Amino acid sequence: MGRIQLDHLTKRFGDTVAVEDVTLDIEDGEFLVLVGPSGCGKSTTLRMVAGLETPSEGNLYIDGAHMNYRVPQNRDIAMVFQDYALYPHMTVRENIRFGLEEEAEYTAAEMDDRVAAVAADLGIDDLLDRKPGELSGGQQQRVALGRAIVRDPEVFLMDEPLANLDAKLRSQMRTELQQLQSDLGVTTVYVTHNQTEAMTMGDRIVVLNDGHLQQVGEPLELYHEPANRFVAGFIGEPMMNFLRGRNDDGAFVGDYLEYPFDERLADAVGDADELVLGVRPEAVDVRRAEAAGSALGPHEFRMRVTVTETHGDQNVVSLTADEETDHDALRAVTDGMHVVDQSDSVVVSIVPDAVHVFDGATGDALC
Length: 367
Ligand code: ATP
Prior knowledge:
- This protein is an alpha+beta fold.
- It is built from nine helices and 20 strands.
- It folds into two domains: 4-234, 3-Layer(aba) Sandwich (Rossmann fold), CATH 3.40.50.300; 241-359, CATH 2.40.50.140.
- The mean pLDDT is 93.
- It comes from Natrinema salifodinae.
- Keywords: ATP-binding, Cell membrane, Membrane, Nucleotide-binding, Translocase, Transport.
């Protein structure tokens, strides 16, 4: 079992409120990712679960037992940190075994067997006699994981464990970690500021900003139904386009375009006045002007390309609706075969089903 409940948890450091009133129920066996920008309170939340910080208010439970004042050693958790925290003077074997030595229940032979089994699972059995200084970053990462796994805890807590790896290794380790977590079935709380990591790894994602919980949901739920503008901007790469404007009798009127509402949008917007229209770059369709007909539909716009970034499989295209200033109104993602060049005149279409609308004053999603 490894159910974790955060019940109105708040943590203050003097005048700084690091985490405010966070309530969250993490299921047994779940892979939960805490994500948000630097300083949003991710690590503090994790450290409260670990017992490295005591909550200022609220309660923390693991498997129903009250944890607020229980020392980390008595919580049946294992932590993996960004800097691995390996002992440099110990071999890999000793480092992994160290995770077991605090627990009196194992004989020396059992400890050796467990270390060997975990090392084999992680593919580091040929490194057991080396010291951390003789290992690559990825290998050190595996040793840190080994030290956590060997204890067979109820809960893994991981704070940016892949942050020090290069992009390729990080992506490989993401997959390995996910596989490992699903094989072991151990409840895992994973902190990252990287939205791609959150989207690809989490069963559910918790988005934090400024100490406040913004939204909890499955990755695609956050992508398709962000609760507010912050989540909409944080999840998804390239970032969602946001256009400020107002509600003018059945249409959004912004600086760069006027967008008539269909029934769904009109219902959602109601009588809100200030609006922000949100459109994901992948939902913006771009065609060369000469390929489009002369008459434009209500959700089509003439624009000009200011910059095209080529990524191989796709292009990211910046578009302006302003002849004079080149002020970018929108970014679009087009597939790699579909090339438009700088200065091309294009027709952009955005289907109403792909449009999000946020209250301009509160940032809350209207749809
Ligand atoms: P990062 O991604 O940069 O690690 P984070 O989301 O993990 O950030 P926290 O480390 O939880 O954020 O910090 C949240 C807020 O609490 C920040 O404003 C931080 O400066 C503050 N804070 C964290 N720990 C302490 C501390 N021990 N004393 C005072 N303030 C702290």
